[in-house]
Backbone:
């Protein structure tokens, strides 16, 4: 078990969500931080952006999560809040491999603390496609993990064009009705189908949110050795891990720099991944 930090123990933490993220976030925060998590009633996170593109996300992923947490604190007049935000796209190093990046943010107005946990995972069913008939919809649904994972039908002929959107499709009857409705109302005979990425409708994404919450707690409990403040985080990663064969520097991480946001103390840690040399296959000289 992670050590509870005394700055948060016995406080109320407001969780800014409308898609039941408290199912995975609240138990972890309550156990690891000793707080009581409360979800504000009728809190609408869609105003900060939607995956189906009706509303553009406000700012970056972290900025959007921060805005959610700040709004939740303003509504409840509490001083400790949490929020999460997800994004989906190609892997930063492996093109065409879909990934899900989840962040969970902590904002503490009393102590002026902001800490962000994250999870970058290739475990995602994120996908979209233009379909021309019901059989193609069935094939897409099977690959997407339907019906445990919900689907979305957009009555438009491409992902960029806004049209009528049918979300939260979780039964075969709903899927058939939505596809037939779309095909009937589009002159070119095709509709846009996609995975519903809202947490309540996507258990794979919910698991990644759980992992991001665990990462947040890990960072909270990683305290500064100089002033004991939480969130002693990695500020910089330095390349140069030597090749095991030729000993020349590679692009892999040789050390990381930790820094404290409160007292600005910093500390370098060598070989953070437990490896003192790189495999020659990762060396641009041995394996150009």
Residues:
């Amino acid at each position: 078990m992670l050590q509870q930090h005394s700055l948060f123990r016995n406080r109320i933490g407001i969780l800014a969500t409308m898609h039941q993220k408290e199912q995975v976030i609240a138990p972890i925060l309550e156990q690891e931080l000793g707080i009581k998590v409360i979800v504000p009633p009728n809190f609408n996170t869609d105003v900060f952006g939607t995956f189906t593109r009706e509303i553009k996300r406000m700012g970056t992923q972290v900025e959007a999560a921060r805005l959610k947490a700040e709004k939740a604190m303003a509504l409840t007049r509490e001083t400790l809040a949490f929020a999460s935000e997800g994004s989906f796209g190609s892997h930063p190093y492996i093109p065409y491999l879909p990934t899900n990046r989840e962040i969970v943010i902590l904002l503490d107005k009393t102590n002026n603390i902001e800490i962000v946990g994250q999870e970058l995972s290739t475990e995602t069913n994120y996908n979209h496609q233009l379909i021309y008939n019901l059989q193609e919809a069935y094939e897409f649904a099977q690959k997407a993990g339907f019906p445990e994972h919900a689907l979305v039908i957009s009555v438009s002929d491409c992902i960029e064009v806004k049209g009528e959107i049918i979300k939260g499709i979780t039964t075969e009857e709903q899927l058939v009705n939505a596809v037939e409705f779309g095909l009937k109302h589009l002159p070119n005979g095709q509709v846009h189908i996609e995975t519903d990425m809202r947490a309540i409708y996507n258990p794979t994404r919910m698991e990644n949110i759980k992992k991001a919450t665990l990462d947040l707690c890990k960072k909270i409990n990683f305290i500064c050795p100089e002033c004991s403040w939480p969130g002693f985080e990695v500020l910089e990663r330095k390349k140069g891990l030597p090749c095991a064969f030729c000993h020349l520097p590679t692009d892999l991480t040789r050390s990381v720099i930790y820094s404290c946001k409160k007292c600005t103390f910093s500390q370098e840690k060598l070989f953070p991944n437990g490896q003192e040399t790189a495999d020659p296959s990762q060396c641009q000289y041995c394996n150009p």
User: Anything to note?
Assistant: The longest strand covers residues 80-90. The helical segments are 22-33, 61-76, 134-144, 172-185, 203-220. The chain has three domains: 12-124+200-221, 128-196, 234-282.
